[in-house]
Structures are given as C-alpha cells and as structure tokens.
Design goal:
- The protein has a single domain (22-151), classed as Pnp Oxidase, Chain A (Roll), CATH 2.30.110.10.
- Strand 9 and strand 10 (133-145) form a beta hairpin.
- Strands 3-2-6-9-10-5-4 form a seven-stranded antiparallel β-sheet.
- Helix content is 17%, strand content 43%.
- With 163 residues, it is an alpha+beta fold.
- The structure holds flavin mononucleotide.
- Residues 23, 38-42, 56-58, 61-63, 86, 89-90, 92, 94, 153 line the site of flavin mononucleotide (FMN).
C-alpha cells in the first residue's frame, strides 16, 4: 500500500487488530553481552518437524539488524501480569529496557524474561523480505511453558484469557 492508500492502510490495521494474539518479547545478546529485545505479537509456529517458528520484525526497528547479525534469539511469551513489560519493550529509546526486569540466559545464549507464560530458544534459519517487515524464520532448540496465564492483545488493548 502506498501513500495514496492511506485509508486502506488504516482499514487493514483496524481489521488485523481484531485478530487476538499473545504478546512476546523477542530478545538477543549482543557480542558484548548487552541484552536487546522488543515487543512482538507477530509470532507463530510454522513447522513441527523440524520445529520452526517465525517472527515478523519491522525493518526500521533497531533490533532488526541486531537479530540478523547475532543469528539467535529467545521468544518469551508474556504472562497476564506483564503488560507493563510489553509497553516497556515497545517504547523508545531502547536503552534500559532490561533494567527493571529479571532475566536469565538460555542454553542457546539468548535472554529469557522471568515470570513469562512460556519461552522458545531459537537459532535463525533465514530472513525473508516482506514489505516493510522481514520474516525471521528460526529453528527451535529449546522450549518450556510455566503454566501462567498468557497476556493477550486485541483491538489495541491488553487483557487475559479470562480462564
Ligand atoms: C503489542 C505490541 C506488539 C508489537 N508487535 C510487533 C511486531 O510483531 N513486530 C515489530 O517489528 N514490532 C512490533 N511492535 C513494535 C515494537 O515493539 C517497537 O517498535 C519497538 O520500539 C522496536 O524496538 P527497537 O527499535 O529497539 O528494536 C509491537 C508493539 C506492541 C505494543
């Protein structure tokens, strides 16, 4: 959609916001040991054998180049009590996003946030160009769920499953 299709672009955004999703933080460790990450709801499983997932990352995000360069990342599925973390990891500037959260390093060497509903540890398989985003297709090398209720995102608002 070009600038001439501004109205269609808004409609597309609005319609897609009616598709409820979970909310994740996709994070990697820079070579100097600095954790970097961003809030992502464009996350889905792709294949069971081999286990593959994808995340869609805005080309203008600082994380885009970092995830591509490091080539590994972890996806923490946030729990219902972590809406503030979802906002924090979406706000700019990105410095200090990890200051007020507790996290650990996965076996694959990526940051996993504590108290999430689940996580998957990933090694990047390939990056596929897709308009103003890129699809990061990744192999899953570890995964775990905590049993906590996940955070949902729907119509621009955070909530729980109500379960
Ligand atoms: C609920 C929610 C979902 C988001 N999902 C995505 C997403 O799927 N992909 C993406 O690139 N940005 C997504 N964002 C926006 C990024 O988190 C935001 O642009 C962030 O500041 C990028 O950080 P960076 O530039 O430090 O990488 C989402 C934001 C929110 C609040």
């Amino acid at each position: 959609m070009g600038a001439m299709d501004q109205k269609n672009s808004e409609l597309f955004r609005h319609v897609m916001s009616r598709f409820p999703t979970g909310v994740t933080v996709v994070a990697t460790l820079l070579p100097d040991g600095t954790p970097r990450g961003l809030t992502v709801n464009a996350f889905t499983s792709v294949s069971l054998d081999p286990p593959l997932v994808l995340v869609c990352i805005d080309k203008s995000a600082v994380s885009h180049g970092q995830l591509r360069e490091v080539g590994r990342f972890a996806v923490t599925v946030l729990s219902v009590d972590q809406a503030a973390i979802a906002r924090q990891f979406a706000s700019r500037p990105h410095d200090g996003r990890f200051d007020s959260v507790t996290w650990r390093t996965s076996e694959g060497g990526s940051p996993i946030l504590d108290e999430g509903a689940a996580w998957v540890d990933c090694v990047l398989d390939r990056v596929i160009e897709a308009g103003d985003h890129s699809i990061f297709l990744a192999r899953v090398i570890g995964a775990e769920s905590s049993g906590q209720e996940p955070l949902l995102f729907h119509a621009g608002a955070f909530g729980g499953t109500g379960a």
